[in-house]
């Protein structure tokens, strides 16, 4: 177990009344995580939306250990939490209480409540693994388990005509890796497709986070958020993440094809729990 270190930065919950007065700068400060991957460190943010922690681990020349943050007021990170991990970089591994789990790009791992020592390694420093982390409070113990990309129920959706041809991979959900409240997966858009999650929806029973990756360096994704009748947008670059409140849509379009991780936590594990907003109603 690691000794407590400095507290996690906190993102407080923002309501609809505050959103009405948001500027570009305040939207980015409240909902965008600009830097998740820094060499040989773990970067993380604590959000008051369902007490979720969003983070990234980038081991290059050395192993990186999951810290015990002082403001969690726990003996170790997963004493009262669970953790979902998806690798969006080169090959690597996650060691959980002495057991090594190898993760290639787009492989996922669930780590259950009560695991005390979690560390991250890359197979090659020149092509390091990039582990996206999402943690939520947990009330029960579920076993640590891996799911390779090929096993993650790949489902083709969308059409070329609507520029949203894509494949969805589900990792942590009711019919996949078991959890207390985490739901995680990712979406890969086909070349020439740019739209994600359209028609848009909200789910008032869960928050969500998006990590955009494989975004070309000179391109961006215009992430749409806000209630369906008062949308806003945030311009997002590669390896940046968005915090999405339960009252917000979470959709977007890129200037080139890209991929993104979606992760949820809240009241239920029902992937289909969505309140749709028809395109004609968006404002």
UniProtKB/TrEMBL annotation:
This is 4-deoxy-L-threo-5-hexosulose-uronate ketol-isomerase. Pathway: Glycan metabolism; pectin degradation; 2-dehydro-3-deoxy-D-gluconate from pectin: step 4/5. Its cofactor is Zn(2+). GO terms for molecular function: 4-deoxy-L-threo-5-hexosulose-uronate ketol-isomerase activity. It catalyses: 5-dehydro-4-deoxy-D-glucuronate = 3-deoxy-D-glycero-2,5-hexodiulosonate. The keyword Endoplasmic reticulum does not apply. Its EC number is 5.3.1.17. PANTHER family: 4-DEOXY-L-THREO-5-HEXOSULOSE-URONATE KETOL-ISOMERASE. Catalyzes the isomerization of 5-dehydro-4-deoxy-D-glucuronate to 3-deoxy-D-glycero-2,5-hexodiulosonate. It comes from the Bacteria. InterPro entries: KduI (IPR007045), KduI/IolB_isomerase (IPR021120), KduI_N (IPR027449), RmlC-like_jellyroll (IPR014710), RmlC_Cupin_sf (IPR011051). The gene is kduI. The keyword Isomerase applies. Signal peptide: none annotated. Keywords: Isomerase, Metal-binding, Zinc. Belongs to the KduI family. Binds 1 zinc ion per subunit. Zn(2+) binds at residues 201, 203, 208, 250.
